Amino acid sequence: MSKSVQKRIFFVPVAAFLLLVVFLWRGLYLDPTELPSVLIDKPMPEFSMTTVENQPVGNVDLPEQVFLLNVWGSYCLPCLVEHPTLMRLSEEGEFPVVGVNYKDRRQLALDWLERNGNPFAYSILDEEGRFGIDLGVYGAPETFLVDGEGVIRYRHVGVLDESVWRDVFAPAIDELRDPDPRP
Amino acid sequence: MIPEFGQFSLILAFCLSVLLGTLPLAGAATGNGLWMGLGRPLSAGLFVFLGICLFILGHAFVTDDFSVRVVAAQSNSLLPMQYKMTALWGGHEGSFLLWTFMLSGWIFAVSVFSGSMPREFVARVLGVLGLLCASYILFMLATSNPFDRMAPVPPADGADLNTALQDIGFILHPPTLYMGYVGYSVVFAFAIAALLSGRLDAAWARWSRPWANVSWAILTIGIALGSWWAYYELGWGGWWAWDPVENPPLITWLFGAALIHSLAVTEKRRVFKSWTVLLAILAFAGSLLGTFITRSGLLTSVHAFASDPSRGVFILGILGISVGGALLLYAIRAPLIKSEFGFGSLSREVFLLANNIILVVAAASVFLGTLFPMFYQALTGDLISIGPPYFNLIFVPLMIVLVMLLGIGPISRWKKTSGGYLRRQLGKLALASLALGVALPLIVLLEISLPATIAVALALWIVLTISRDLLVKTANKPGRWQGLRSLTYGYYGMQGAHFGVAIMLVGVALTSWFSTETSVLLRPGETVALGSYEFRFDGSERIAGPNYQADRATVLVTRDGAPVADLYPELRVYLASGTPSTEMAIDAGLMRDLFVTPGEIRDNGAWTMTVYVKPFVRWIWLGAIIMSLGATLAATDRRYRKLAGRRRESVVADITGGQGSLQPAPGVSP
Predict the structure, then answer these.
(1) What residue ranges do the domains of chain B occupy?
(2) Are B630 and B494 in contact (CB under 8 A)?
(3) What is this structure's pTM?
(4) Across the interface, which of A14, A24, A108 has its CB nearest the CB of B298?
C-alpha cells in the first residue's frame, strides 16, 4: 500500500458519513406513516357495528357519494384543531363526514360531541380499535377520502385543517371527479 | 410571568454556551491563559442557568400552569404528583431541555474533575462541549421552545400524560438513558481535543477511560431499565423488540463497549490510537443519531415524538456539522499518528482487536438493519420492514464468538503469548464447560437442548476462566487474601463486568427458548395449567385509583397444590383522557417470572387473559446491573484518582511537549 493510498483511507469514514447524511436528509421528507395503504383503491372493509348513539351501522349505510371518513377520539387534542374544518364541511353539506370513534368510550364520545358540536353524519363506535386495524389506522386523527362507490382513494395521517384541505384534499377530489386520462 | 424567566434564563444559558464554545478554544489556539481560564466559570454558569430553566419548567408542571403549551399537552390536574413532575420529559421539548441540562451537568463535572490535565487540553474539551451545548440550546430556541405559551386562552385542563408513560419505568428510564447518552459527548470532546492538539498519546487515553466507563455504565442501566419497563408495561412478555428507537442506544452501547477495550490497549500499549479516536467519534455519532431518529419522525416507532421535518433538519445539521467536522479532522490528523509498539499474533492486543471487530460489526449490522427501511424507501419508494429474525441471525453468532474470546483475552498477555501457555491454562476449562453445558440442562430438563447447552457452556466458560485468572494472578503472593488485595479495582471491574455478561447470557438464552404462554377465556373459578403451574381465576372487582377506574381480577397461582402467588391484573380507564390501559400482574423470581396480561371482560364476569411463565428473565437485568457496577468500579481505579497528584508533572510534560512523555509513573500501572 502506497503512502497516499494509506492516507486516503482515513477519509473513508467522513465520506461514508456524508453519504449517510444525504440519505437521512432525504429520509426526512419521506413520511413512513404515509403508508401507501394497502387499502388505497380498495373498497372499504366489510363492517357491521354500531354508532356511538347505539344504532346498527354497516357498509350499506355509507353515503353514495364522495365522503370523508374521519378517525377521532375524545382524548385526541389534535382532533379539536381540525374540528372547525369538519364543522364547516358538514355545514356546507357537499361532502358528508363519517366518524370513526377510535379506542374511546361511548359516554366520553357522546359528551365530546355534545360539548364541541357534531360534524359527523354518524360516528362508528370502535371501542376496541378492531375496525381501526381493518383500516390500518395509525392513530387519531386520520382521514380517508372515499369515493361514491365506497372505494378508498386517499389517506391522510394527522390534522385536517384548512390548509391541508386546500392543498391536499381539494385537488384529490378534483382529480376524482375529473380523472386523468391515463388508464 | 415565571415561565418568561425560564425563557430568559435559557437565552442567558445560550450566551454563556457561545462564550464557552469560543473563548477557551481561541485561548488554547493562541496561548491566551485568561481565555482558557474562562472555561471553568462559564461551565458552572451554564449549569446553573440550565438548572434554573429545568426548575421553572418543573414548577409549571407541578402548579398545573396550563398556559404553558407543553404542560397543557402532557399533564393534567388529576395526574399524581410524581407524574406531574416527570411529565416534563413526556414530550419532545421538555425532554430536550432535560437532555441539554444533563450535558451541562457533564460539562460541569469535567470542569471540576479535570484538575490533573493540562489547561490547553481542558480548554479544548470544554470549548467543544460548549459548542455542542450552544447548538442544542439554539435548537430549542428556534424550533422547540419548552416555555411556549398557549395563546390567547389557556385550556381549563391539560390533555394528560400518555397513560403508557404513567409508570415508575418512565420516571427512571429516560433520565438514565439520556445521562449515559450525553456522557459520550464528553468522550467525544476528549477525542476532538486530542486531535486538535495533535497529542494523541497514552495520557489522553488514560484521561478518557473513566469517562468512557462511567458513560457506558449509566447507558447500560438506562437500556436495561427500558427493557425492564417494556417487559412489564407493554404486556407481551418481550424484553427486547429491535425497535428502531431501541437500536441506537444499543449501537452506542456496542461502540462504547468496543471503545472501553480499545482505550485499554491505547493506554497500556500505545497502539490502535487512530482506531480508538474513531470509536469515540462513532459512539457519540450513535448517541446523536438516536436523538435524530426519535425526534425527527424518520422511522415509525412506539417511542417517536411527533413528526416534524423542521426539527429533523436542525438536528441533522447538528449531527452533520459535529460528526462530519470531527471525521474530517480525523481524516487530516489521523495519518500523522504512529503506533509505537508492535505485537505478536497471539497477544492480548490481537484478542482485543478481535473484540473490537466483532462489536463494531455488530453495531454496524444493527445500524444497517435499523436504517435499511429508510434507505429502501429513499431509493425505491416502497416500504419494507426488517424484523427480529435479521437481527437475531446476525447477532447471536457474533455474540457466541465474542464470549468465547472473552474467556481467552484476560488470560493472554500483552505483546506475545505462547499458544502452549493458552492451551495449558484453558484447555481443561473448555472441556469442563462443554461437559457441564451438556450435563446441567440434561439433569434439569431431562432432554438435550442445543440452545441451553450453548448458553450454559458459554456462561460457565466465562465463570471458569475468571476463576482461573484469579488463581493465576494471586499464585505468586504469600497468601491468597494478600494476592486478592493486591489486584486493582480496574482488574476487578473488568472481571465483574465479564461476569455480568455470563449472567445476562443465561437470562437471554433461557428466557428466549423456554418461555411458555397461553391465551385463555376463564370464568370465575376456572383454572388453566401452564408447565407445572396452575392459574385459577377468582373473579374480579371494580376499584378506583387516583386518576383512573379499574376492573381488577384475582388470579391465584399454585404449584403441586401449594400456593405460589396472588396476581391482580387490571383493566384501567384513565379519567382525564378516557384512555383504556391494561396493567399486567407479575410475580417476579430469580428462577422464573409468572405473569398475567388481562385481555377483556366478557359475559358473566369471564375474562380473556394470557398467562406466561418466563424462566430466568430477571438474569438479563441482573447481568446488566453487574456489568454496570464493574465498569463503574474500574473507573474508580487508583491510577485515575492519583492523577490529581501528578498534576505538576503533566504540566511539565506539556511544556516539553513530546509524544509519550506522559508515561504512567512507575508502580502505578500494573
Answers:
(1) 1-166, 172-336+345-383, 418-514+623-628, 516-616, 637-670
(2) yes
(3) 0.79
(4) A24
